[in-house]
């Protein structure tokens, strides 16, 4: 699959590297290609020669699947830069959380309760098939879940389009996830985004991000 | 231990029955004893002859541990009826969630993000040692956790007083819980209360409340 990964941070790099390793054609999207190249991108790119870099719009244009790995605060802006036409009809795997660091750590959420970032993105891009997933665990576990309890823990997919959720669930299974729970429509993203306050406190308690929840049933 | 369980609903009855079964001296507190007796209480009481019934204040006065098993919307009122003096110095196990059913199902939360019901109760009753716990699972699993995966799932304690958390954790262990995670101070109740939106969607998806999360680490 041709995959555009929007965002050059830890999450974007983790997803891009893993997807390329699995044989996908991956282009990372960034707001400013020159600025990204001028940062620590070169080192990372040297060890990931099959991953391309382009502006958000160029990366998105030729893709079949788009991954939103930007920060929650910047997601709508990055997706606008990617372009509504370029995103139309495509599956968008949205990993971002609407974290607000304005009052320090732990952050609060800037969207919650009767709305979610996933829903905001879906409303802003009605022709795009948004699937919220992977926002409930750390980047390294998103892409290498088997390192923890041989993958015996859960992830979720939330979205209005069954085929889009199937596409994302298959990618997650390729990553190594063994328990992908389809929560239902995109409004269920509220629940997975609102898991963050508990996740952040567990992170503080356990001193590592290498943990996840399992839905025991 | 002499335990007051405030609230005559499913949660209150489950906790009262289990605590009495374990040999504790249990009194259920209610707003209106006559009204409770006039309802379906008599049937339940007949099969739980060791559990007493009294007004909130009378139940609380003689107790060593108080359990808030009232609805989130009514908790502060019920605790005010229990009496600040009667609650002073005592451990209060707070199970309530601030659910708002004003817009139908699933409910939203009326307190969240930078506050929690647990914190509100702690602020309203500063001499009481509030421990938030058991608000993340269904009543029957609170009290009989071994029925699911032989108890291989997690519960949390949140509170400012280490001794109070120890008391509650011991009670939870007596109930059969095998993984009681001390999240830290009472502000961590935000995380466990904000788990409810995910819990409610999983409940809808799974068609049963007999599930729980396990923190895999």
Can you give a write-up of this model?
- Two copies of one chain form a homodimer.
- By secondary structure, chain A is of the alpha/beta class.
- Chain A has one domain: NAD(P)-binding Rossmann-like Domain (Rossmann fold, 3-Layer(aba) Sandwich).
- In chain A, the strands form two sheets. An eight-stranded mixed beta sheet of chain A has the order 3-2-1-4-5-8-9-10, with helices on both faces. In chain A, strands 6-7 form a two-stranded antiparallel ribbon.
- Chain A starts with a strand and ends with a strand.
- Chains A and B meet through strand 7, strand 10, helix 10, helix 11 and strand 11 of A and strand 7, strand 10, helix 10, helix 11 and strand 11 of B.
At CATH level 3, the topology of chain A is: Rossmann fold
The most extensive interface between chains reads: A-B, 38 and 38 residues
**Quaternary structure type:** homodimer
Low-confidence stretches of chain A: none
Concise account of the structure shown:
With 217 residues, chain A is α/β, with parallel strands linked by helices. Chain A is built from 11 helices and 11 strands.
Note the topology.
The structure is a homodimer of 217-residue chains.
Chain A (H helix, E strand, L loop, with lengths): L1 E5 L3 H12 L3 E6 L2 H6 L2 H6 L5 E4 H6 L3 E4 L6 H8 L1 H4 L3 E4 L4 E2 L7 E2 L7 H8 L4 E5 L5 H5 L10 E6 L2 H14 L3 E6 L4 H5 L2 H11 L5 E5 L1
Parallel strand pairs in A: 1-2, 1-4, 2-3, 4-5, 5-8, 9-10
Antiparallel strand pairs in A: 6-7, 8-9
Protein name (chains A, B): Pyrroline-5-carboxylate reductase catalytic N-terminal domain-containing protein
GO molecular function (chains A, B): oxidoreductase activity
Keywords (chains A, B): Oxidoreductase
